[in-house]
Design goal:
- The protein is α+β, with helices and mostly antiparallel strands.
- The protein has two helices and three strands, in the order αβαββ.
- The protein has a three-stranded antiparallel sheet, with helices on one face.
- A hairpin with a 7-residue loop joins strand 2 and strand 3.
- The longest helix is centred in the middle third of the chain and has 9 residues.
Length: 61
């Protein structure tokens, strides 16, 4: 999917907003080439309280 978005769809940046408690998704993002760029961001995902996330970024070209 990443290869398609970056090479066929001419996308230059992909971001992943991952809940800090979700260690498996964070590991998968890192393994896929994402870099952890921003930490401790509060986002409203529709839960009772805002969710603490880390933002991962992958850039090409």
């Amino acid at each position: 999917m990443i290869d398609y978005l970056l090479h066929e769809a001419d996308i230059r940046i992909i971001t992943a907003h991952i809940m800090q408690a979700n260690k498996a998704s964070a590991a998968a993002a890192l393994k896929s080439g994402f870099e952890k760029r921003y930490t401790d961001i509060e986002e409203d995902w529709g839960f009772e309280k805002p969710v603490m996330i880390d933002k991962y970024v992958i850039k090409f070209r």
